[in-house]
Amino acid sequence: MSKMFRRIGRRRALEGAAAAIVALGLLLWWLLPLGEAAPSGAITISTGTQAGVYQQYAKLLRTALDKDMPDLKVTLQTSDGSQENVTRVANGEADFTIAAADAVETYKLQHRPNAGHLRGVARLYDDYVQLVVPRGSHIHSVADLKGKRVAVGPPSSGVRLIAERVLNAAGIDAKKDITPFADGIDTGPDRLRQGKIDAFFWSGGLPTQGLQQLADRFTFRFVPIGADLVAKLHDQGGATRYYRATNMPESAYPSVQNGVAVPTLAVSNLLMTRTDVSPRLTEWVTRTVIRSRDGIGTRVHSAQLVDLRTAIYTDPLALHEGARRYYRSVKP
């Protein structure tokens, strides 16, 4: 009897070991296809301004890409933001970039060069519109910005696109009713602290490094952008359909918000490329984006929201063939 039990025990142990080997093999296949050499060559990623989330995310993604594809040279280009990023990828100045969905749709609606060649890689995280004023400011609504000095972002930024639309929805002409400044998250916080502007718009992931740094040395608050204003934005048509009313959670900037959520609007961000970028390379890049989520998320909180289940929804762009291959390979 004892011999029979020993045989059963050995058989179960062997079965368990075999199952473990199969599971390990599947995991390795998901992370790095066996026998497949990593792509080599060089790519350029257009990012964003210093102290912005695009720049932070891209630096960490480059580190992850270097690890997965050591023979691939990855160059980062700073930019004004979404509008410039879309243009760069469309005209071949960059191979990959991050851009907000409204900027991508605007480029397409304007029938800009090579718009039809743009493709999605992954939906990443949401940008939140953050309208910042000094704590003691008399500005309590977007309408209160009339006659004020307002930073609306660089001309080719996604911030500029959203800020002008938000102002318009509040009945303010950005060219006539305010004194506009082209500051972004790299210069806007210091100019607000120095009293050179009365308010500035920012659209980015939560939290944004530039605002975290400002909170350490200056008391400011956020001006709410209510759902009624978002509804008026939708009335403008076109790319405004990508804006949705939401709340900036109280945990975004605890020392500023004091436990209070702020009504605002959000828009999704897309990692994007072009049709002529190698499907094999794009498949590897997509894999790295999903695989590196937790590692990047420890440094850039927004990256924690990258999710395999939602990454495939890159509207208004169709998925690149390489990205499609990856998502099909990991489909349950």
Overview of the structural elements:
- This protein has helices spanning 2-31, 53-68, 82-91, 101-109, 158-169, 188-193, 209-215, 227-235, 254-257, 279-291, 293-297, 308-311, 321-329, and strands at residues 41-46, 72-77, 96-100, 118-134, 149-151, 179-181, 199-204, 220-222, 244-248, 262-274.
- By secondary structure, it is α/β, with parallel strands linked by helices.
- Strands 1, 2, 3, 4, 5, 6, 7, 8, 9 and 10 form a 10-stranded mixed sheet that branches.
- Strand 5, helix 5 (158-169) and strand 6 form a beta-alpha-beta unit.
- The model is unreliable at 1-5 and 20-30 (pLDDT under 50).
Number of helices: 13
Helix and strand element order: HEHEHEHEEHEHEHEHEHEHHHH
Return the average pLDDT rounded to an integer: 92
Kindly estimate the percentage of residues that lie in beta strands according to DSSP: 15-25%
Short summary of the structure?
The protein contains 13 helices and 10 strands.
How is the topology of this model organized?
Elements: H1 2-31, E1 41-46, H2 53-68, E2 72-77, H3 82-91, E3 96-100, H4 101-109, E4 118-134, E5 149-151, H5 158-169, E6 179-181, H6 188-193, E7 199-204, H7 209-215, E8 220-222, H8 227-235, E9 244-248, H9 254-257, E10 262-274, H10 279-291, H11 293-297, H12 308-311, H13 321-329
Parallel strand pairs: 1-2, 1-3, 5-6, 5-7
Antiparallel strand pairs: 3-10, 4-7, 4-8, 4-10, 9-10
